[in-house]
């Protein structure tokens, strides 16, 4: 019996030795495919072992073969295939798979399969707790493979999953990173400026505390944002993220209570809000706080609050929260303090006139149009953009949100916008009958305003003439 087995083993060895390197590769591929068909069975494990032995023998033979381009290409393929075997073994051999893929990519960096298999080895079947470095390396390989084969859906989907996983992990890391940034800059400020930068909130205690609360972070954020030197410049996106998280109900309620109090409390609240107006304006609670501050502040203090919105008007006009702050600035402050809003809308007025929130800003500008020529001229430039052509003006009148602006032009602005009123009236008269009978009430309401402006009898005559012409 033993003699028979020995003879069979010898024959198998001799048969394998008679195979070429290419044949060994093909036999390994065949065994690997059989293992894939019988996945998670004892037979699959045997076929994987067989495939591995074929690949290793082929690699060993290549070691003594001539190092020409064909053999180098074969070396790359064999190591890539060997990596695939290690990945499929139970349990998978991640380290060996990565090492085999590394060798394959040393020979040919454009081998997509080797890139993908090295990424799989790094991901370790999406195991939790992997270091971010490994995830980034895997994503780099997947992106490189995707560049080489853009239509490879397997690579594309895996790259998307890894990218999303990285984003989630990096977001979680922002909080401790932000805390270190806060501590670093507060400590630097204390060393640089001493006790002068401390106030009743007790910033020094924060540095001695092991467990920093959101309230402490909030206090330190205000300290850093009050600096007039480099610390503000050094704030990272991570710090801004944690600062926004700190602007919670407790903060807004505390400051709102102060704003409702006496003059000293109001002054303290306004001081705490310095450099935070734009961040607060984008928040549902914060925007109400800023509006209250504008209402109770002195003209000079309110102008300073409004000044923090400079450079943010377009973003604020499209914000569901900050648009209310812009409206408050226009309705409460002098033209000299709010005219920057009109200036920043010039060039984009047509877009904002048709925007759900932006139309409100232009309506407030029309409602509170300055009497001074130098300011009225700037608002006039905004309106010029809206009525640049007949089609533009007609579209404005019939737009869901734009018609509010058209109505504002007709009803406000006095003599400064008289030419705009006249032009808009002409536009509506151009098809007075059609506009009066338009299915949308917003257009017919504009016609009613025009009729008031130019005379009801005249409009009625035009409408009657149009109806008679249709009857004929």
Automatic annotation (TrEMBL):
Q: Does the keyword Repeat apply?
A: yes
Q: Which organism's genome codes for this protein?
A: Effrenium voratum
Zinc-finger as a keyword? Answer: no
- InterPro entries, from UniProt? ARM-like, ARM-type_fold, PUM-HD, Pumilio_RNA-bd_rpt, TPR-like_helical_dom_sf
Q: Which UniProt keywords apply?
A: Repeat
GO annotations of cellular component type: cytoplasm
Q: Where are the Pumilio repeats?
A: 308-343, 344-380
Which GO terms of the molecular function aspect are on file?
Answer: mRNA binding
**GO process annotations (BP):** post-transcriptional regulation of gene expression
Domain PUM-HD per the UniProt entry, residue ranges: 164-472
Give the protein's recorded name. Answer: PUM-HD domain-containing protein
Which PROSITE patterns does the entry mention? PUM, PUM_HD
Q: Which domain of life is it from?
A: Eukaryota
């Amino acid at each position: 019996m033993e003699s028979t087995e020995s003879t069979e083993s010898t024959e198998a060895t001799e048969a394998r030795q008679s195979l070429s390197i290419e044949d060994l590769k093909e036999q390994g591929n065949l065994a690997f495919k059989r293992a894939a068909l019988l996945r998670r069975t004892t037979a699959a494990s045997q076929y994987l072992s067989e495939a591995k032995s074929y690949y290793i023998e082929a690699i060993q033979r290549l070691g003594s073969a001539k190092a020409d381009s064909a053999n180098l290409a074969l070396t790359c393929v064999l190591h890539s295939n060997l990596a695939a075997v290690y990945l499929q073994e139970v349990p998978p051999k991640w380290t060996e798979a990565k090492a085999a893929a590394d060798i394959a990519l040393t020979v040919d960096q454009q081998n997509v399969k080797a890139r993908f298999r090295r990424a799989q080895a790094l991901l370790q079947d999406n195991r939790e707790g992997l270091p971010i470095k490994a995830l980034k390396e895997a994503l780099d390989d997947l992106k490189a493979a995707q560049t080489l084969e853009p239509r490879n859906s397997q690579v594309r989907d895996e790259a998307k999953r890894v990218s999303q996983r990285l984003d989630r992990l990096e977001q979680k890391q922002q909080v401790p990173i932000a805390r270190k940034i806060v501590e670093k800059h507060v400590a630097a400020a204390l060393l640089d400026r001493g006790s002068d930068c401390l106030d009743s909130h007790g910033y020094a205690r924060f540095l001695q505390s092991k467990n920093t609360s959101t309230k402490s972070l909030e206090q330190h954020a205000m300290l850093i944002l009050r600096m007039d030197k480099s610390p503000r410049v050094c704030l990272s996106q991570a710090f801004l993220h944690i600062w926004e998280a700190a602007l919670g109900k407790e903060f807004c309620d505390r400051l709102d209570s102060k704003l409702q109090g006496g003059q000293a409390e109001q002054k303290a609240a306004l001081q705490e809000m310095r450099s935070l107006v734009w961040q607060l304006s984008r928040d549902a609670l914060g925007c109400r706080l800023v509006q209250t501050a504008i209402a109770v502040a002195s003209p000079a203090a309110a102008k300073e609050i409004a000044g923090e919105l400079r450079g943010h008007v377009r973003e604020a006009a499209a914000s569901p929260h900050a648009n209310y702050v812009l409206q408050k600035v226009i309705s409460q402050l002098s033209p000299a303090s709010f005219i920057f809003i009109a200036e920043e809308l010039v060039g984009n007025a047509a877009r904002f006139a048709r925007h759900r929130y932006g139309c409100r800003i232009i309506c407030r500008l029309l409602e509170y149009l300055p009497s001074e020529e130098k300011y009225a001229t700037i608002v006039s430039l905004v309106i010029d953009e809206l009525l640049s052509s007949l089609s533009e003006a007609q579209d404005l009148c019939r737009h869901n949100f734009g018609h509010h602006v058209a109505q504002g032009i007709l009803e406000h602005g006095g003599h400064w916008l008289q030419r705009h009123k006249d032009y808009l009236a002409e536009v509506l008269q151009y098809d007075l009958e059609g506009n009066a009978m338009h299915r949308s009430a917003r257009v017919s309401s504009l016609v009613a305003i025009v009729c008031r402006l130019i005379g009801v009898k005249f409009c009625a005559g035009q409408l009657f003439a149009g109806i008679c012409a249709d009857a004929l």
